Amino acid sequence: MITITTTINASINKVWEFWNKPEHITNWAFATPDWHSPKTENDLREGGKFTTTMAAKDGSMSFDFEGEYTLVKQNETIEYIMADGRKVEISFNETPNGVQVIENFDPETQNPEEMQRGGWQAMLDNFKSYVEEN
Length: 134
What we know:
The chain has helices spanning 12-20, 22-25, 113-133, and strands spanning 2-8, 35-42, 49-56, 62-73, 77-82, 87-95, 98-105. By secondary structure, it is of the alpha+beta class. It has a domain at 2-32 and 73-133: Alpha-D-Glucose-1,6-Bisphosphate, Chain A, domain 4. The protein has a seven-stranded antiparallel sheet with strand order 1-7-6-5-4-3-2. The radius of gyration is 14 Å and the shape is globular. The termini are far apart. Pfam families: AHSA1. It comes from Flavobacterium cheongpyeongense. This is Polyketide cyclase. InterPro entries: ASHA1/2-like_C, START-like_dom_sf.
């Protein structure tokens, strides 16, 4: 598993809402400024499914990031299985410095792990900035 983390200066309720509501996900779920997430659907419950379309702003490529939730504990934990079978675990921990988000995910085999870590961390950093600025 690969682990990434950040601490966000916001309340646990705000972090949870911005992580899970489609109107917020479309504002942060991409790794670089030349990409965006034009569409998201999220059924946040065990057995529920999600899909986020990630696309290059120039229209050259896009893909759907999707999966099914296996565990949802409000303001604490989300676990899901991606469409390709890889597992993801996310924990939200209140600390004196804000909410620590820890994301663990199974790497895929097409790209180096450091590249995957960098892409996922960039998206998590976008999330932190979006929450703290809004």
